[in-house]
Design a protein that fits this description.
- The complex is a heterodimer of chains A (328) and B (327).
- With 328 residues, chain A is α/β, with parallel strands linked by helices.
- Helices cover 44% and strands 10% of the residues of chain A.
- The radius of gyration of chain B is 19 Å and the shape is globular.
- In chain B, the strands form 3 sheets. A 7-stranded mixed β-sheet of chain B has the order 3-2-4-5-7-6-12, sandwiched between helices. Chain B has a 5-stranded mixed β-sheet with strand order 9-11-10-13-14, sandwiched between helices. A two-stranded antiparallel ribbon of chain B has the order 1-8.
- In chain B, helix 1 (6-20) packs parallel to helix 7 (153-164), helix 8 (214-227) packs across helix 12 and helix 9 (245-255) crosses helix 10 (270-282).
- The mean pLDDT of chain B is 97.
- At the A-B interface, helix 5 and helix 6 of A face helix 3, helix 4 and helix 5 of B.
Chain lengths: 328, 327
Amino acid sequence: MKEKQITPDFQVSLFTRMVLIRTFEEKIVALCRESYQLPGMQILANGQEAVATGVVSALEPEDIIVSNHRSHGHLLARGADLNSLMAEIMAKADGVNCGKAGTLHLSMPEINALMTSTVVGAGPPLAVGVAFAQQYQALNGVTVVFFGDGAAAEGSVHEAMNLSGIWKLPILFICENNGWAGAQRPEEHSAARQIHKRAQGYDMPGHSVDGNDVEAVYHLSLELLEHCRSGKGPAFMETLTYRMRGHGEQDHQHYVNPDELEGWALKCPIIRYRRALLNAGILDNAQIQNIEQEAEARVAAAVAFGDASPYPESDTALTDVFVQAFNA
Amino acid sequence: MSQKTFGNAINDALSTAMDMDDTVFIAGEGVGVSIHNDPNMPTYGLLDKFGRRRVKDTPVSEAAIAGLAVGASCMGLRPVVEIMFFPFITLASDMLVNHAGKLRYMSAGKSSFPLTVRVKAGVGFGAGSQHSHNLEAWIAHSPGLKIVWPSNVEDAKGLLLSAIFDPDPVIVVEDMMLYRMKGEVPDADFRTPLGKARVAVPGDDCTVIAYGMALYTAMKAIEPLIEKGIACEVIDLRSLVPLDKTCILESVRKTGRLVVVHEANRFCGFGAELAAMVAEEAFYDLKGPVKRVGAPQIPVPVASSLENAFTPGPEDVVRAVLETINK
C-alpha cells in the first residue's frame, strides 16, 4: 500500500520523475526543431508532468493504465524503458512496438500500460473492458484512464462513465483539463465548465485538483484509488493544468495569448516543486543539478540507442495483424 | 446429434463455451432479460443458467459494449457481445475498426483480442433501413477483423464456438430470418473451422457463391436451371474473412463461370471482392463474365412490395447464370 505520509525520499522521487519527463519531451522538441526524422505528429504534455507523476506514483503494480495521444509522461512515470520508448518514437526496429506504433499508439503491457488510443475519447470505453476483467476475475487492480477536456465531449466517454457507474467498475477517470481542445477553449466545447461535476450524473465521486501541484494530485489520486479499490465503483478526477505547447509540434499556437502562456509558465509544476523542495531543505541546488544532469544523460543515451537502431525490415509490415496469420 | 432451431444452436454454442471456460461471458442489450422472451432467441435462459456475473445486460451504449469487449479481451477474457441489429454496428465501429482490428498490430503482437461480436442481420421483416442493412463489406474491408456468416443450424453452432475460442476478433452475423429454421446439430463442443467454405450442391456448369440467407435464394434457382440443363455448383461461403480462396478457385476452374449472390447492396459489396479475386487468379479459366446478384443501391424500404424490389430473388440468380452462360 502507498503511504499517505510523504517522505523526503518520495518527494525527491516525484521531482526526479517530473524532471525526467520534461527532459525527455524537451528533447523531442529539439529533435523536431532540428528537422530530425521523427515520423508523424509529436504530441507533448509539457506543463502537465505533475498529473502523470502524481497519478501514476499513487498506483499499485497491478493497476492498469489506458492512455491517450499525450502519453509519454504516463508511461515514463510508470517506469517505461527510455531506450525502447525513444526508439519507438523514432519508429525504429528496437522500439517497444517495433515501429508499428510510433509516438501515438504506444502499448506497453509489460509495465501495465496496456493500451493507448489516439482516437479522442476512445480510452474510457476500453477502460470499461479492462476494469470489467479486473472485477470479473476479482483482481485487486484499478484501471486508470487518461483523457483530455476535449475528449470529455465525446459520447463514448459518457457511455463509459454511465456503464462503469452502473456496474461499479474500478475505474479512475482522469480528465487532464489543459485548457485547450485543439485550438478551442473550454467555453467552446463544454456547456458546464467544471467537467468533474458530470461525475454526479453517473453516481461517482468527482473532484478537481490543481494539476500543477504534484503532491495534491498524488493525495487525491490515493483517495480516489482507494474508493475504486474498495468496490465502491468508479471515480472522476479533473486536473486543472495547461498545455504549454501546441496540440502537436506542428502547431505553433498562433491562437494563444502570449501573456496567458507566460502566466502559466510561472506556474510550471517543476519550478514550483523545485522551489518547495529547496525551501524545505530537502534538496539543494547541487542535488537538483545532479538530478537534471542524470535525466539529460539518460535521455541522450536513449536518443543514441534510437539512432543506432535500424528502421524495421519492410516485410515485418505484414506480421502481427492476427495471432493466426492467413493469406488475404 | 440433436434437433434444434438455428436460435437454439447459437444458444447451445454460448452455453457450451460458458460451461467449458469461465473466461467466456456474454453482454449486450437484453441478452439477459429480453423483450422477446422467446425460447428460439439465442440468449434465452442463459441468465438463469449462468447468473448475472456472466450474463450482462447493458445500457443502450454500443460504443461501451464494444469497448467492453476490446478491453476485456486484452485482459485475457473471451467476451461475446451482441449488437442488436447490423446497422447499429456503426455506433460500435470505432471500437471494432480502430481498436479491435488495429491494437494487436500496433502493439507488435504483444496484445491479442479474442473477442466475438454477434450481430443480427437480415431483410424481410419490414423494419426498414435502420434495422436492416448488411454491412459485411465494411467489416471485411477493415484489417484485423474476421467475419463469418452461418447459413444452417450446424454452422450456427460450429462457427460461433470457433469464433469464441479463436485468438482474434471475430464478427459472427446471424440472419434473423433463420432463427426458427430447424436442423440436426452435433452435441457438445462442435466446431466449424473459420476460413472453410462448403460445397452445398455440386455441379459442373456454373459456380454460385452465397452466404447466410442468400444461400437459400441461390438454392431456389437450382431447380429451374436444371430444367434448362444447367448444373450449378453452389458454395456456402460461411467465412468471408478468412476467405477460402482454394475452394472458390477449384470450383471456378472446374465450371469456368461464377455468379455471386448476397442480400447487401451490389455496389462495392463483398461480391465485388469475390469477382475481382477470381478475375485476377482464374481469368484464363473463365468462359463467361462474372456476374453479381445483390440489392440495388438504395436503403432497405419498409413496404413489402418495395422490400421485395430491394431483395435479390431466385429469378435474379437464374438470369445471372443464363447471362454468364450466354443462353
